[in-house]
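Step 1: inspect the first sequence and its tokens.
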Amino acid sequence: MYEMDKDEIIVPEELPLIPLRDMIIFPNLVVPLFVGRERSINALEAAMKEEHIVALVTQKAAELQEPEIDDLYRLGTAATIMQELKIPDGTAKALVEGLSRIEIIEFTQTTPYFRARIRVLPEQEEKDIEVEALMRNLVAQFERAASLGKPIPQEVLLATANIDEPSRLADFIAFHLNLKIDEKQQIIEAVNARDRLERVSLFLSRELEILEIGSKIQSRVKEQLTKTQKEYFLREQLKAIQQELGASDEQASEIEELRRKIKSAKMPRQVNEKALKELERLAKIPSAAAESAVIRTYLDWLIGVPWQKKSKQKLDLKEAANILDEDHYGLDQVKKRVLEYLAVHQLTEKMKGPILCFVGPPGTGKTSIGKSIARSLGRKFVRISLGGVHDEAEIRGHRRTYVGALPGRIIQAIHQAGTKNPVFMLDEIDKVGTDFRGDPTAALLEVLDPEQNFAFSDHYLEVPFDLSDVIFITTANLLETTPPALRDRMEVIPYVGYTEEEKVQIATKHLIPKQIESHGLNGKHLLIEEGALRKIIREYTREAGVRDLERKIASICRQVARKVVEGEKKRLKITSENIHNYLGPRQFRYGLAEEADEIGVATGLAWTEAGGDVLSVETTILAGKGELTLTGHLGEVMRESAQAAVSYIRSRAEMLKIDKHFYSEYDIHIHVPSGAIPKDGPSAGITIATSLASTLTKRPVKREMAMTGEITLRGRVLPVGGIKEKILAAHRAGIKGIIVPMENEKDIELVPKEVKEELKFFFVDHMDEVLELALTPEKPVKRARELTVKA
């Protein structure tokens, strides 16, 4: 038994034990205790039957419902039970007073309740000058915390000032601080009073620092609030003074001005109600408030959008056709579609605007035709570039909750046009990106759907806008990168490369006059002959469009402008003989793809986003073990075509009179020049097979013959795409004959007449026919059919 002199209370060496959750009982403090767990209630009952003394020890993890011995701290408090009250739900409430610190020596039982042998830890009270200083500092810190707003009752502060014992002071203040359980446990476990005072002072210093920072924040907020209230009262007083003097209220006049603009904007009923509702909010908010600027900007956008304003449309088909022809040479299919729209619009006023998609190589006039269409219709023209757009909010806008929010590009462009029926061009629709911010192409689905865009919803405006009167025109270099759902909503009009004759006409009628004017020249300074133009097209450019051609013309104009400034008086004539003085040596060879019939070299035709192109396929064989090497930056599909071509040649070894064991005795190397340019697709299949057959049979390939087509293992020639573009490329390169799959015969109708007159077409459906046509010496064609187009 342990005796305590203070209150003559003897603490037994063995006590019932109650585990505590989220609390620690300090000595000399009276605390209510709620007991609900079965073992804890049993321990309380046992203590009431004995000396009314219980051991109170905190468990390490509060969430444990049934803690074991290892889940409890070893140091706690012995407390006397002053009062017990049983509650009808089976729990109990006890009023306990801490007696002393205790240490658990060992647990004597764990059921039906915890019971342990304990040792009372005597208080080591060494009250010297340093301890006295610690006590005074602790009391001062506690009072400072109360002054900074910590909720400490006045009677607690008075009690603190009257405590003389160091340990008791430390325990008392620690009890009234918002410390974590492990921090309070550190105080319980402190060896002596000095250590305990230092630990409490450290925790209190941290609490003071937090309180001081909070006080500064509160002061700033209060100061700002006071300033805002002061401004509000002064503004109200100023308003009252102005009313007394008969002066106009600036905000009231602004509200009336906005109300008048809303009325004159002729908004739809739903939009008008939204605008008036926001206007009422604006009238009630002080003009200095941040929300006021947000609402004012929103109303400005609602008022500025052309809800009813339309351009007066021209309906004269003849005039529209003249404008289109004046601005662009060729492009007959595009012009035809626009005139069809005008014709239908004359018959019915309710026709929805078409959604056109121009697809073709760069420089073929896809973007510039949009302005001509707008001019021919008498409408405004707006254009936005979608290249590199990754954020869905670029199309639909940001919600007003974001700082600096604005409508999306669609509404901004309509606002810029000032009418609700412009010609709207969405440029580079195939280059829209997707990332974590959303998919812009999904937002475009609503814009480009005539069945939905009559009620297009912008996130910023939050009201529907009718886009059904807009003529949308989209442009793309490739359709493959456009999502199918978006592609399905558009009427695709393909653009192909220009023929040489078309380029000459475009340069003569448009490019040369434009560049002469932009360089400050006139017809007295410069004349470019047609022969020089054709030489530029053939030997200095190799493109489907006319951008590079325009750059070459601009280069000539710059040099002529310099000579004029230096004093040149006579008119400078650019001819085919002197063109190299201005543009340097020729960059491309015009004429046959190959200068002579060669073994193992075949000419193929390719289709890229820049239009058609001519490529050579070279094959050589070397002594080896039958390895197949493919070079030239070839894609997977093209590699598979090469393997199919090799297998076909092996199957036809006897017919071609070649060694049927060639595949095991030779290594085959197939190369497609221009290795830095990626190449893919199946259309080079028959070209590769022809090149390999030429190498093995030692029969040269005819230099004037180009070919395109996919090959199968059985030698069938399958149709391919881009026939028109490929034929135009062959024509540019000076090719005379083209081998085309039989099923592509229908595509020849799209080729310009002047091109067909200069070429011979050979339609085949089997590889045997290709070899008969392409390899020398030439033999009679048994199955192939030759088509020669006459004027």
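Step 2: inspect the second sequence and its tokens, then contrast the two.
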Amino acid sequence: MSARSRKPDNKHDRRVKSGTSDVRGVNVSQLTFPEKTEQRDLLASLGLGRTQNWLIGVVAALTAATLILNGDGLTFEGDNILVALIWSLLATVLLFVRWYRNMPFCFDQQSGQPLTGRLRFRWFDVTAAVFFGWVFVSFVVVWCSGNGSPRAMLTMLAHWGGFAAMFVTWRLLLNDRRMIRGMLLLFVAAIIGESSAAYYHYFYVGPKTRQEYYAEHEKALTANQDAQTPGEQELYKNRVDSIEPLGTYSLTNSLAAVLAPWCVFLCGVALMGRRLCCHSEIGNLSGMTGNLSMRIAIVTLLIAFVGFILMMTNSRSGILATLFGIACLFGSMLAGKVRNPRTLFGGAMAVCLVIAASLGLGLATGGLDRTLLLTATKSFGYRIQYWQSSLQLIVDHPLTGCGIGNFREYYTQYKLPTASETIADPHNLFFEIATNAGLPPLICFVVLLVAAICYAFISKPEEASPESGGFFKCWQAYQPFLTGGLAGIVAAFFYSLTNYVSLSFDLTCFALLGFLTGFFLLLPIIGQTALPLKTLAPFCLAVLTVALLASGGIAFPHVNVTFWFLLVLCFNQASGGGHGVATLPPSENPKNRELQSPAPEARILKPEIFVALCFLALVIVLYPTAWLANLRANTLLRNMEANPSQGMFLDKRITEWEKVVREDPYRTRVWCDLCAAYLLEQREFPGLTQKRPDTSDWQTMIDKQLLRAGITHELSRVTLNGTTAHALANAVRSSPLSASNYQNLGMIFLEDFEKSKNRGSLDLAIAMFQLAATRYPNHSLSYAWLAVCYNLSGETELRHENAKRAIELDDIMPHSDQKLPEELRRSVGLAGRQ
């Protein structure tokens, strides 16, 4: 036998030794490693078979998690910081990849290859960079001056870094049909999921909570640590009595702000969607779904589903913004901007029926009543008060504002004597930006917003081409958005367990159910309907802007991700799909590929690499200081609440609190608790106090605060042991402008004086109440306690002066929750007459 004839036998022998089959033409690698094929099939079935699909899945998961997680004012508690840092990390990776490959993130749907063309920085990129850069400059200036609350500032810095990362992410990715339509589908499906959770809250959670509260309301008030004073208890009772749906949020205004633009988008789909793709296979899947009337019927039902929750929020700004957007849609169609006369009449009738049905259902269930209109004037009057105070704050700090995260502490210095409440934001997006960062970023913000909305009037309406190839081709294209969205909602539930307010399992299940239902119903409609996005995107952005004119939310992640998505979509649509990217995939012919692809440039330092390094530095700094420290401190506090038996042992309680402040040194409330615990220990167990280390760095800190506030109270009689002094200094340092913090400290030292008769504690109580009155000059409570303290110290003139001021402010205060408690008012009145 020749060597040639034995050669196949040798191959056969090697195949036998390697355990493979003798069958010719079989892929040996597949037979040897069958698990790889199964793994690829599994990933393909989930829509994650390619690199760009993984990218889409990550972005979809982050977007869905941001929309579902609670962010209403709880950012000051350190919630959702990790999500913001992941946004920043994602933007860092995208920018590094963009710099390294010198190609845009734009893929041909069939081949999966990147399209040719370069990304170019435009004027609005520079404007956005100046906007976010100035916010960071404001943060640095306020931080270095020592006039801010460190914990709140670090938390908000992480979130504003996440907002900048959202802008960069959408700027890089919203550049082809698949990404734009897929993200639109994801946003609307997530909104339907949030509405489903709101229905569950409206019909089940809310009534159950009210029933439990009135069954044992005293126990409920005692268990709530945020409802200790009569005013706080009244506010808590009002929240319980409210029948407004919340879903996974805490404020109805922000829920309405998120729902309003997407409700208008659905109306635009019903009114302006011209046709389904001629090759659609929808009819084969769901009968008459491919019919135009059936499409309008489905979208109308979804509008009613979301619109009812929007009306039940009783958010006047959200409802008016939605009506404004619908009027803009009809005006655009009547003006001939989008020529679709066949659906104009039917769409108008459908929208009117939806509004009428929602109004009727709201009146029937009690969610809407005459008070919605009767209290509108009063509510707007409150907004005027907020804006007057905010305007004065801007006048005093025009360049840098008060710094992100500090508005609540600064606002009390400018609050009017008859204002309704101490707010955390000015309830207006323009005032919010100016008060937090100054006028320069406000100018940049207005330029971006006005330019994006004006594109609806100066550019030709362009019908975004629908998906070709039928329903199953559409399903393959948008499957990663479904997988990523589901993963994001599930991850949000588990992540929320570490937050100050967590998502309940029931609400998460309803959000998942609504998301799935909305996605499958809208997949053939958004995926295969020609939409004039150049008109719809600016209209939706205008709706969100109108909704935020009288409510807060621009600093909330779930509102902000919608804002930057719509803003970038407007700019990218106006610039021909984004960045001047070519729409032809590279040819299979290498010569043609060379003609179509630009010559590679040298990878030198470019703007994108500088921005990427900024995001990376932000993540590196904030991960341990903002998120990890907050997570560990929250874990320790939860363990303390879960084991109330430790409250019986003072030394164990102090030990646990000391662990908390070691993890997070900016915990103001814990420092105050430690201060009170050290004073109690000094009175009851002086032997234990002597064993603690002496760290007496408080005098310089307190004198600095007194001098800055213009207070010259004598503290020479104050003698504090080292641990109490250290706790007091850190309590002041962690919230140097918080009036409520000084009131708490004043009450702690006043109580110590009543039990120990230590004159130094009374002097410290007077100093703390003076600081509180300086930071909150139009509030009667601090002056009332000052009158009480001066009565104890025997200073008659100061006693009369503060008692008179407290009674005057209390008399003109029209809101019962902010009036003095009756017992304290009687004490102040007696002190004033003595």
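Step 3: confirm your contrast with the notes below.
The longest strand covers residues 463-464. The radius of gyration is 31 Å.
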